[in-house]
Design a protein that fits this description.
The chain is globular. Strands 1, 2, 3, 4, 5, 6, 7, 8 and 9 form a nine-stranded mixed sheet that branches. A seven-stranded parallel sheet has the order 12-13-11-14-15-10-16, with helices on both faces. Strands 17-22-21-18-20-19 form a six-stranded parallel sheet, with helices on both faces. It contains 24 helices and 22 strands. The chain starts with 6 loop residues before the first helix and ends with a helix. Among the domains are: 46-147, Nucleic acid-binding proteins (OB fold (Dihydrolipoamide Acetyltransferase, E2P), Beta Barrel), CATH 2.40.50.140; 244-431, P-loop containing nucleotide triphosphate hydrolases (Rossmann fold, 3-Layer(aba) Sandwich), CATH 3.40.50.300; 442-597, Rossmann fold (3-Layer(aba) Sandwich). Helix 8 crosses helix 15 (416-423), helix 8 (206-233) runs parallel beside helix 24 and helix 10 packs parallel to helix 11 (288-301). Strand 21 (543-548), helix 19 and strand 22 (574-579) form a beta-alpha-beta unit. It is α/β, with parallel strands linked by helices and 683 residues long. Bound molecules: adenosine-5'-diphosphate and magnesium ion (MG). Keywords: ATP-binding, DNA damage, DNA repair, DNA-binding, Helicase, Hydrolase, Nucleotide-binding.
C-alpha cells in the first residue's frame, strides 16, 4: 500500500484545478495521467525573449517583444494569410501574418491602437515580419522574458502546461532524505522537492537534473537489490552431480576456455542452498546452449528436473530436437510443452513431469502455467532473457516451495552499466570467447537503389547451391504492416526464383512457420524472407548470405543478432546491409560500426555512445523502458554509485529499516517500484 503522504501525487490529473475531461484527454496523449506524471514531465529548455523599442537586424531570428501601433488590417481572401501592418516605436513597419485565424487577429489588433506583440522576428523581402505573434494589451501581463518549454502535444501550450506543473508542484510533499548524506554532500545536491522545483524553473540546472536522475536510478537499483536479497534468503536445494551424464556426453569438440570457466561458476552456484540467480551473457554463436545443457545434466544427475524456457515456438522446437539427439543415448528423458501440445500428448507430458519420469522439459511460457506441476524442479534455464521482463523473473523465482536455481541467458550484449540496471539482482557470467574455426562474417553497406545488383548477386549465390536470408524492414510498430512488407518482398523474389522462396513472419501460426523453417533447414528452399522472427536462435549452417533491407531502421543489437544467423558453417558468410536514400550522420556511423566489427560487446558500448537520450540499446527493444527521467549517459555515470548506495543501505540495516530506510521506501513508491516493496513483505 502506497503511503498516504504520496496519494495527492498519484491522483488523476482531473483532481487538479482547471483540468476537465478535455484537457485530461490532451494530457493523456503525452502520457500524463496523474499529478506525478506532470511533476516528472521535465522541460526541454527555456525561451529567452528580448524587449526592444523596435525591430533591428541584431534581433533577427530572436524572440522579441515589441509595442506596435496598428496601421492596416488586410483580411485573408481565400488563400494567403491575413496581414496586419503595424509601426513600432522606432518607426519601422512590421507585417504580422496570421494564416488561419484572421478574424481573431483583426479583433485583437484594431487599427490605430497600440498592442504588445511577441514572436520571432523575421525578414520577408525588405520587410520585418512576425508570424502568429502573441498579442496582448499594453500594461497587461504578456509573455515573460524567460519561459520554460515542455514537450508538447497539439492543443496544449507551454504556458498551460506550466500552470499545471505548478499546481502539481504544490502537491509535492516535503520528503525525508533517502540519499546517503556523503553522496548528497559530495554532489552539492539539494532535497528532491527543491530540486524538482528548480528544474521546472531553470531547466538548465544540471545539479538538480542529476539529483533527480539519481533518485530514479537509485529506486531501480534498490528494487533490484531487494530482489537479490529476498532471493538469497529463499531456500533451494543444493544440486551436486556425480558426472555420470556429463562425462558420457559425446561432443565432437572441446569446450572453449570460457565455456569451462562459466560451467564451473554455475556448478558452484548450484551446489549451494541459496538458489542460483545467474545471467549468462554470450554473443550469438558463443555456445551458450552447451553450457545450459551441462547445467541441466548436473541437475538431473542430482535427481532433480530441469526446465528450459525459450522465447519462441521455433526456438523451443529447435532446442528440443538438439537435446533429443544428444541425450537419447544417455537415457535422459526430454519432453516439449508449448501452446501447441494438446490432448493426449500434453496429458502424458504433464503426468511425466508430476511423477518425475521426465527429466528435462523444453518449452515456451506454457511450461509455467499453473497446471504444470513438477515432481522436483531444480533448475530453470531461460534462453534469450531479453524477451522476459523483471516481473516474469519474479514470477519464476516464486514458483514452488523450494526455489529452483535460475540460469538466464542472453545474446544481447549490453554494456556493463545497463547490466547493472536491468539485471542488478543477478550474478553475471560472460562467454567472451568464440569457439574456434569461425570465419568472421563480411559485412557490406549498400544503397537500396542498387537493389537490382543485390538480387543478381543473390541469384549467383543460389545457383552455386547456397541459401540466404532476406530480412524485411520494420515498417511501423505494427506486426501487420511488417508482415505486409515481407509478403510483398517474398512475392517479388518468387517471380525471379520460382519455387525457391519461403516466408515467415510474426502473424503466421506456429505450425505454418515451423513448416517453412523446416523446408529451409532441409535445403528445399533457397531463400527465406522474414521479419525479425528469425532473430533468435535459428541455426541453418548452409545459409551463408544475409540481406537486411532498411538496415538503418533496426537497432544495432538487433542487426548484430540477425547477422549472427549466418557464419555458422564452414563457408565464408556475407551480410549485406541495404540502406535507404536518406541516412543521418548517426545512421551512417552506426552502419559503419556494423561493417567494422563482429564484437557484440564493442557494438553495444559504441551504440550507447552514438545514440541519443531515451534510445537505450536493448532496453527499448525489450519493451522495458526503465527510466523516464534518467538519460542513457546519466545511467552510465550514476548507476554504479546508486547500486552501491542501495546495497549498503540494505546490508547495513537488513531491510528498509530506520529513518533512511523509510525514506528509501518512499522513493520506491515515488518511482513506482512498489513491486519490490511487496516482495519484501511477502519475502
Ligand atoms: P548461442 O550462444 O548463440 O546460443 P549455440 O549454443 O547455438 O550459440 O552454439 C553455436 C554453435 O557452436 C552450435 O552449432 C554449437 O554446436 C557450436 N559449439 C558450441 N560450443 C562449441 C565448441 N566449444 N567448439 C566448437 N563448436 C561449438
Ligand atoms: Mg542460443
Amino acid at each position: 500500500m502506497r503511503p498516504e503522504l504520496l496519494n495527492p501525487l498519484f491522483a488523476e490529473v482531473e483532481t487538479l484545478k482547471g483540468v476537465g475531461p478535455q484537457v485530461a484527454k490532451q494530457l493523456a496523449k503525452l502520457g500524463l495521467n496523474r499529478a506525478v506524471d506532470l511533476l516528472f514531465h521535465l522541460p526541454t529548455g527555456a525561451i529567452e525573449r528580448i524587449q526592444a523599442p523596435g525591430a533591428s537586424p541584431a534581433l533577427l531570428g530572436r524572440q522579441v517583444i515589441l509595442d506596435v501601433t496598428v496601421s492596416e488590417v488586410r483580411l485573408s481572401r481565400g488563400r494567403g494569410p491575413t496581414r496586419v501592418h503595424a509601426v513600432d516605436g522606432e518607426g519601422n513597419t512590421l507585417t504580422l501574418a496570421f494564416f488561419n485565424n484572421g478574424g481573431w487577429a483583426a479583433k485583437q489588433l484594431p487599427v490605430g491602437q497600440t498592442r504588445t506583440v511577441t514572436g520571432k522576428l523575421e525578414a520577408y523581402g525588405d520587410e520585418w515580419q512576425m508570424i502568429h505573434p502573441e498579442v496582448t494589451e499594453p500594461g497587461k501581463t504578456g509573455p515573460s522574458l524567460r519561459e520554460t518549454v515542455y514537450p508538447l502535444t497539439e492543443g496544449l501550450t507551454s504556458r498551460r502546461l506550466r500552470e499545471l506543473v505548478t499546481a502539481a508542484l504544490e502537491r509535492a510533499p516535503v520528503l525525508p532524505e533517502w540519499i546517503e548524506p556523503s553522496v548528497l554532500g559530495h554532489n552539492g545536491w539539494r532535497d528532491w522537492r527543491t530540486s524538482l522545483a528548480t528544474i521546472h524553473a531553470e531547466p538548465a540546472d544540471s545539479a538538480a537534473r542529476k539529483r533527480l536522475a539519481y533518485d530514479e536510478i537509485f529506486a531501480n537499483q534498490l528494487a533490484l537489490a531487494l530482489l537479490r536479497q529476498v532471493s538469497r534468503r529463499r531456500r533451494g536445494v543444493p544440486l551436486r552431480g556425480d558426472g555420470r551424464l556429463t562425462d558420457a556426453l559425446d561432443l565432437p569438440y572441446a569446450l572453449t576456455g570460457a565455456q569451462r570457466r562459466v560451467a564451473q561458476e554455475i556448478r558452484d552456484d548450484m551446489g549451494q542452498e541459496a538458489p542460483m540467480l545467474r545471467l549468462l551473457q554470450g554473443d550469438v554463436g558463443s555456445g551458450k546452449t552447451l553450457v545450459a545443457l551441462l547445467a541441466m545434466l548436473e541437475a538431473v544427475e542430482a535427481g532433480a528436473q530441469a526446465a528450459m524456457l525459450a522465447p519462441t515456438e521455433i526456438l523451443a522446437r529447435q532446442h528440443h530436437a538438439t537435446l533429443l539427439k544428444q541425450l537419447d543415448s544417455l537415457g535422459v528423458r526430454v519432453a516439449i510443452l508449448t501452446g501447441r501440445e494438446k490432448g493426449k500428448a500434453r496429458d502424458s507430458t504433464l503426468m511425466g513431469l508430476a511423477d518425475g519420469s521426465i527429466d528435462i522439459l523444453v518449452g515456451t511460457h506454457a511450461i509455467f502455467q499453473d497446471k504444470v506441476a513438477y515432481r522436483r524442479l531444480g533448475l530453470v534455464v531461460i534462453d534469450e532473457q531479453h524477451r522476459f521482463g523483471v516481473s516474469e523473473r519474479l514470477l519464476l523465482t516464486a514458483k514452488g516451495a523450494s526455489t529452483p536455481h535460475l540460469l538466464a541467458m542472453t545474446a544481447t550484449p549490453i554494456p556493463r552499466t545497463l547490466t547493472l540496471t536491468q539485471y542488478g539482482e543477478m550474478d553475471v557470467s560472460r562467454l567472451d570467447e568464440m569457439p574456434p574455426g569461425r570465419t568472421p562474417v563480411e559485412t557490406r553497406v549498400i544503397a537500396e537503389e542498387k537493389m537490382v545488383d543485390v538480387v543478381e548477386g543473390l541469384g549467383r549465390h543460389i545457383a552455386a547451391g547456397g541459401q540466404a536470408y532476406w530480412v524485411c524492414p520494420l515498417v511501423a510498430e505494427s506486426e501487420t504492416s511488417d508482415a505486409a512488407a515481407a509478403e510483398e518482398r517474398a512475392a517479388t523474389l518468387a517471380l525471379r526464383f520460382p519455387g525457391q522462396v519461403g516466408l515467415v513472419h510474426g502473424r503466421m501460426k506456429g505450425p505454418e512457420k515451423d513448416a517453412v523453417m523446416a523446408e529451409f533447414s532441409a535445403g528445399r528452399l533457397a531463400v527465406l524472407v522474414a521479419t525479425t522472427v528469425i532473430e533468435v536462435g535459428v541455426d541453418v549452417p548452409n545459409a551463408a548470405l544475409m540481406i537486411i533491407e532498411g538496415a538503418e531502421r533496426f537497432g544495432l543489437a538487433q542487426l548484430h543478432q540477425l547477422r549472427g544467423r549466418v557464419g555458422r558453417g564452414a563457408a565464408k558468410s556475407t551480410c549485406l546491409l541495404l540502406r535507404g536514400a536518406t541516412l543521418s550522420e548517426t545512421g551512417r556511423a552506426r552502419l559503419a560500426l556494423m561493417r567494422e566489427t563482429n564484437d557484440g560487446f564493442l557494438i553495444a558500448e559504441e551504440d550507447l555512445r552514438l545514440r541519443g537520450p531515451g534510445e537505450i540499446l536493448g532496453v527499448r527493444q525489450s519493451g522495458e523502458a526503465q527510466f523516464r527521467i534518467a538519460a542513457p549517459e546519466q545511467v552510465q555515470q550514476l548507476a554504479p554509485m546508486a547500486t552501491q548506495d542501495a546495497r549498503l543501505l540494505l546490508d547495513r540495516d537488513g531491510g528498509l529499516q530506520g529513518e533512511r530506510g523509510e525514506a528509501a521506501r518512499l522513493c520506491l513508491y515515488l518511482f513506482e517500484r512498489d513491486q519490490a516493496v511487496d516482495l519484501l513483505r511477502s519475502g
